[in-house]
Amino acid sequence: MDQTMPVPAEDPALLAAFEARIAAGESIEPKDWMPERYRKQLTRMMSQHAHSEIVGMLPEGNWITRAPSLRRKLSLIAKVQDEAGHGLYIYCGTETLGVDRHELVEQLLDGRAKYSSIFNYPTLAWADMGVIGWLVDGAAIVNQTVLAKASYGPYARAMVRICKEENFHKRQGYEICTVLANGTPAQKAMLQDSVNRFWWPALMMFGPSDTNSPNSAELLRWRVKRKTNDELRQRFVNLTVPQAIALGLTIPDPDLHFNEATGDWEFGEIDWSEFYEVVKGNGPCNQERMETRRAAHENGEWVRAAATAHAEKQRARRDTAAA
Amino acid sequence: MSTNDDSQWPLWEVFTQGARGEPFEHAGSIHAADAELALQNARDVYTRRGEAVNLWVVPSNAIVASAPSDAGPFFDPGNDKPYRHPQFYVAPRGVRIF
Fold it and tell me: Which Pfam families match (chain B) (predicted)?
């Protein structure tokens, strides 16, 4: 989306009052006055987030039919349904900013809108369902618990709801990993291979490093974000490394080490060129994801048409009954 | 593309009641072709984990809301009428008044 728009001149008195409210920790509601930039940044961030939830259904949808047991199948279906729900919570939050959901969906379908780069990686083995739940949903929780305190009320409230549900995602993922880690050598190898493929993309989920993040300063100033990308990434690594050790897994990073003084797990350099390639649309599955998403939208057209027709029929029936 | 109908459906505000006797709380909104479908969509999206025993859906455009900027003056009358509160009245020492 457009980030080069000139900042419209705002009434300095209104802007000062707005920033004072933010500083006082007040929550901003849809009908409150807000700077155009705040509205723009939130629309960009929230729609990107909603799109990620929707596209996030695809890598997992691949495995519903191949889940190894009925229990695993049930939880995967429930999880995919949750992602759809999360998308809807956030889209409806975005609509309170005055954009139409239809516009946002169009932007996703025609490739103008971005979504989280993580969903452009393929899910090659069953272990990926475990690792995605553990690492990808784990990273999402770290991000979202902070966003639940965002200054914009509808976004924060959607996040509170989502965080409650994400915990189930993470737990079911870690459970899958635990079972594989204690399984046959082939199962352990499958798990390790999955961790090797998803570790770095999971770290990239927090976005560019602070020195290179164009929107962070503004988002932090207006308390949409409460922590920087690097702070959140570090928190995630600190939480996750002990969980990997508990499973007897190796993190694919020769530079990873514990810093006694800071209590942090320090990690090696992220390959940012890969990150930007995937964001630009050149990841392993960008094309495939978008094609699947478009097909789902087009193939769902008859459902939308049927619902509209049904509603019209009911209305007509009521009208004749009343006449 | 004929997909434009997607959000031409009216918007509904969703309210959930967590348990009998509790107030209804705003949960979010939903798009739906009519009231019946709005109720079903609201159930699917907002009550997957037993969050409600009752649901209200209200057409969003039927809601009339006060403006946040009016908060002060609009709700003001209460503040200068302390005689509306029990603490305004004096009771003799040692007597318990309910």
Answer: PaaB
Q: What is the pLDDT of residue A1?
A: 45
What digits encode the pLDDT tens for the residues B54-97? 999 999 999 998 877 777 777 776 667 888 888 888 888 988 87
Location of structure tokens 């798990």: A191
The pLDDT assigned to A231 comes to 96
Domain ranges of chain B: 11-64
What does pTM read for this prediction?
Answer: 0.89
Q: In this structure, which CATH number among 3.10.20.520, 3.40.350.10, 3.30.280.10, 3.30.300.30 belongs to the domain B11-64? A: 3.10.20.520
Residue linked to tokens 């995937």? A278
Interface of A with B (CB under 8 A): 29, 31-33, 81-82, 85, 88-89, 92-93, 95, 100-102, 105, 157-158, 161, 164-165, 297-298, 301, 304-305, 307-308, 310-312, 314-315
| DSSP calls for A247-270 | TTPPPS-TT-EEETTTTEEE----
**Complex confidence, ipTM:** 0.84
The stretch A224-234 carries a mean pLDDT of 95
User: How far is the C-alpha of A194 from the C-alpha of A185, rounded, in Å?
Assistant: 14
- In chain B, which residues have their Cβ closer than 8 Å to the Cβ of A305? 5
**CA of B24 vs chain A CAs: smallest distance (Å):** 16
Q: Which candidate from B6, B32, B65 shows the least CB-CB separation from A102?
A: B6
Interchain CB contacts (distance < 8 Å): A and B? 65
